[in-house]
Amino acid sequence: MGEYANVKSKTFFQFLSWLENHRDIQILAGGKHVAKAKATKTGLVYPLPLNHGVVNKRIVKAFRDWLIANSVCTLEEFDEHVK
Question: How confident is the model at residue 42 (pLDDT cuts 50, 70, 90)?
Answer without folding.
Answer: confident
